[in-house]
Amino acid sequence: MVILVVFSVLPIVVALVASFTDLDLRGLRDWSLIEFIGLDNYDRLLGDPRFRAAAGNTVIFVLDGVPLIVVCSLAAALMVNYGSSRLFRVYRAFFFLPAITNIVAVAFIWGFLYNTDSGLINLILSWGGVAPVPWLDQPVMAKVSVIIVAVWQGCGYNMLIFVAALQGIPREFYEAAQVDGANAWRRFFSITLPQLRFATFFVAVTTSISWIQLFETPLVLTHGGPLDSTMSMALFIYRNGFERNRFGYGSAASFLLFLVVVTVTAIQFKLRRQDSNV
Question: What gap in Å lies between CA 98 and CA 85, rounded to an integer?
Answer without folding.
Answer: 22
